[in-house]
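#struct-pred

JT: dropping the chains for the assembly here, can someone run the whole complex?
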Amino acid sequence: MALVGFGNVGKAVARVIVEKRDLLQKIGFEPVVVAVFEKNGSWIDENGLNLQEILQKGESSPAWVEGASAKEHIPEMDCDIVVEMTVTNIKDGEPGLTHIREALKSDKDVVTSNKGPLVLAFPELMDMAEKKGRILLYEATVGGAIPVFHVAREALLINRITAITGILNGTSNYILTKMTEEKVSFNAALREAQEKGYAEADPTYDVEGIDAASKLVILANGILGLRKKLSDVQIEGITRITPEMVELAMEDGYLVKHIGYVDRDRVEVMPRLIPRSSPLAVGGTLNVISLRTDVAEEITLIGRGAGPRETSSAILGDILHIHRVREGY
Amino acid sequence: MALVGFGNVGKAVARVIVEKRDLLQKIGFEPVVVAVFEKNGSWIDENGLNLQEILQKGESSPAWVEGASAKEHIPEMDCDIVVEMTVTNIKDGEPGLTHIREALKSDKDVVTSNKGPLVLAFPELMDMAEKKGRILLYEATVGGAIPVFHVAREALLINRITAITGILNGTSNYILTKMTEEKVSFNAALREAQEKGYAEADPTYDVEGIDAASKLVILANGILGLRKKLSDVQIEGITRITPEMVELAMEDGYLVKHIGYVDRDRVEVMPRLIPRSSPLAVGGTLNVISLRTDVAEEITLIGRGAGPRETSSAILGDILHIHRVREGY
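RK: done, full complex below.
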C-alpha cells in the first residue's frame, strides 16, 4: 500500500492504521505501507514503513527522501493499493488525476478521498479500472464517514436506485442551521462558521453549492450509473437566503435546507423547503443522503460530512473491502 | 435455496426474485428454489420451482405436496441456503428455532427475518453456525429494510461500535407522531393506527416495547458482541404518555420518542425526550438506528421498519451477501 497525500486526512489514516493494528491483524489484514508521499518528498521503505515514527518525526525520519514524488514513483512501486488523498482541485483534477491514472495503469487498486479526479473524469477512470481489472473506490469523496456507496453497491444490490437527495456540505448546513436557530443573517452565520473553522476564508465553494454539486456528480455517476459533469448541475447557492425567508418557512413547519437532488431527469443543488419531520431535516454540520429505491423504498444515511478522522473510516472501509474481495470472504 | 414460511414476507421475497431475475442473472446469481414451505404443506421440486406459478396457483400448482413439513424435509434437502420467514414467536422461538437448527446441522447457510430464534438463542445459533462453518444472517429482523448489520459488519469494520440508539417499532412511533401532530390521546392515536393497519388488535407487543426490546437484543448481540436476553432489557411502554407531556416537551423543542438504547452498561427501551433537530427525531412509521463509533463518530440509518416488500430487500441483501462470499467478489 502507498499513501499519497499526507495532510490532515493522510495523517488520520496513518494514525488509525497504527491504532487499529490489533483489529486489522485479527481480521487477517496486515497492511504494509511502502511509501507515503507528500508535496516535497516521501518516506519510502519497500519492507514497510514505521508509520508511528513518520507521524512523530516527520522529515527527520530516516525513511524521508527529499524530492521523491508520487507521480514518478507510483508506476514502478511494488505495492497493491494506492490511497490518493491529495487536496481536491476541480479545475484540472491535479495532481490526483495523474496519480490515479498512473496507479491504475501500473495495475494497482485505488482508494481515493479526492473529488477532483472523479468530478472531471469519472467515466474515463472507471473504464480504465475495468479494463485493467482493478478496483477504484471513493467512499470518502462524498459525505465523509457516511458509507453511502457501500450501502448502494452491496446492501441494496437487489434495488434499482432511482433518485438521490441530500445535504452534501456541512458548512452551508451549519450556516442555515444558525440562521434558523438564532434568527441571524447569512453574513453573521458565515462569520461564526469561519470563527469555528467550519468555513474557509473564501467560502465560495461551500456557500455557492460548488462543493455539493461536485459530490452530487460523483453520486449520480457512482450510484445511478449516469455520466454527469459538473456543468450539468443546475446550481443555486444560499447567499441570498434571508432570516425572513427562514422564519416564514418555520411558521409553516419547514426548514430551509441546501439540497442536492439527482434522478434521470434532473441534477440540481438549491435551497429547498424541507418538512421539519423529514429525515433530511438534520442540523449543524451533519450531512444526509437519501436513496430512493424500488424495493426498500427510501433509505437515509446521516453522519459527519467532514473531519479527517471520520473521513479515514470511509477510506479504511474501502481498503478493507479490497482486502475482502481479494481474500474472498 | 429453500423458502420456509410463505406469508406476506415469503411471498414478497418470491415476487422480488421473479421480478429481478434479469438483474440477478447479470450479477451471476441464478437462484434455484427447490422448496417453499408453508403451514399445511410445501411446493417441492429438486430441479427448481417455478415461483411465478406458485404465486399464481397456490396449492393447485402441481408441485404442491400436502402435509410436507419444513422440519422433516430441511435435513435431507439438497439446497445451500434456507431462508426462514415463519412468524416470530418470542415464547419458545418455534417453529423457526427448529428450522434454523436443522438447517445449520445439515450444513446449510441460513437467512432469517424471524426475531424469535435470535432473541431466545443468539449465542447458541451463532456458535452452531461457526462450528459448522456456515453463515447465519438476519438483517430483516431489525429495522425492516434498513441494512444496519451490513453497515456495522462491513462498511464500519474498522470502527469499534460502542452504543446503539434507535426507534425500533413503527407502530409506537406512528402513535407518538400522531399524538404530537394532532394533540390527541394515546387511545385515539392507537385506534387510528389500528384502522390504518399499522397496529394489531392486541397492540401489547408494540406499545409496551416488547417488540422493540427484542430487536434491541438482536442489535446488542449482533453488533456489540454482547450476550443479552430479553429479560436483561429494562422496558417501559408508551401507554402512559399523555398529550400534555408531548405538548410540554414540544414547547422546549423536544419530541417524545420511544427509544431503544444499548451500550456495555445499559439495555433499555423507554420514552425519551429527543431534540427536534436530532437525527433520531423521525416521524410516522419510520425506524431509525444510530451507531456510536470510535472513528466515524455517529452513523444513523433511517428507513421503513416494516412492510413485506421492504423487508424482502434486507433478505435478498443477505442472500446476495452469501452468494458474494462464495464467489469471492
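JT: nice. Chain B touches chain A through 55 residues (CB under 8 Å). Chain B has two domains: 2-144+308-327, 155-304.
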